């Protein structure tokens, strides 16, 4: 009998398991994959997420893999350019974009070292219930016999297609249609650093360095253009770079070499899903998913995985009732993630609304507010502070923006 069974051992599941096991709880983690293994991902970890890795004692292990430190970010939105970096957050003065073959193995290792039992290559086929309450899981490792494991709580950390969410009947309650798709791969021969550049129609390029001397190169386009793009991925990919930043397109053609197959991300709609019920909880993309545009998936998995582990510990140790603890987990996650969710859904359309155009255009003319912008990106400045009407008024005054161009609210 386990205190907690976690289904899914990547960016949300392993931290939950590790943090609970460190507090003495008996934890089982299962995953249908074996590690190291790859998965489709943005790779990007914001400073707010890296600060969690640091507090868990895992950041040094990530850095030791040789993944490059990034200390300058370059953004452009249809003629608006912003370059810089945020102030340190809890001592973290860089960002990193590790391969998932690297990151996830470190996270799984952290869970094991903490005392959690980990079964790799295990496919969950059902969630067990007694008297309306989740009490365990059923599944099998490879072609082996079907097995059952029992627990006080079952946590679904198994991504957007969560089997746990399906079996417990978790419902969606906030859905925003997906705007685009991504294609990416890994290239050698380039030294570009970190770029997110949107332009020449509704499309974007992204570049960031990762492990083994490679750069992840990505494009985003509207969903309606997926079929057209897929008909000639190599040519279409090159075309987007040529159109958005011609000089980078020329260098990609002359110096870049694709080292691995293309990875498509035709992601589902943005959503929140009911994430707790009798004997179960959801974390990571299983319960809350947004467009990869802002790269907050891994960081939010860390942040709210830690919140869930804290609340489960309080309930399992008798400090508060389980239902109360889970309600608080949902409240914290939904309130703290709402601003990022809304901003992401808006920017993912690859065109700025009048409000964001005014704010970002003015920000690009103010060194102080540009610094604050990168603090917002990093997770060190709250959106309510950055977009506060009083602060925007000071910004507009500073840069001399005409009164008829000033906007104070997204609506």
Automatic annotation (TrEMBL):
InterPro entries: FAD-bd, FAD/NAD-bd_sf, Geranylgeranyl_reductase. Residues 2-172 form the FAD-binding domain. It comes from the Bacteria. GO terms for molecular function: FAD binding. This is Dehydrogenase (Flavoprotein). It comes from Actinokineospora iranica.
